[in-house]
Amino acid sequence: MFHTASLAATIASPEGVAMARGLLYLVAVLAVWTVITAIRHIAKVVTTLLRATLVVVALTAVGAAALAVVAQLALVLQLS
């Protein structure tokens, strides 16, 4: 049979409380480290996506400028 008084005394001992506190601190440190690592990883992905978006926007702007030049030349050639 279990003796609940001795079980409670064992769980609530100062050593057990210190061990639980240490374990919780370790879990907290690991959780913070995991969040920081995830944020860094997400930042790299977002940075890569932003760079790709900027490249697409720049290519679109160059294409639009080229199209405007071609349209202007066609208009000039058509009028002359």
Give an account of the 3D structure:
- The protein is an all-alpha fold.
- Helices cover 92% and strands 0% of the residues.
- The chain has helices at 4-11, 14-79.
- The chain is rod-shaped and about 100 Å long.
- The N and C termini lie far apart (108 Å).
Topology diagram in text:
Blueprint: H1 4-11, H2 14-79
Low-pLDDT stretches: none
Rounded to the nearest angstrom, the distance between the terminal CA atoms is: 108 Å
Question: What integer is the average pLDDT?
Answer: 84
What class, by secondary structure content? mainly alpha
How is the main sheet built?
none
Key descriptive features of the protein:
mainly alpha; 0% strand; single chain; 80 residues; 2 helices
Task: Give a short summary of the structure.
This protein is mostly helical.
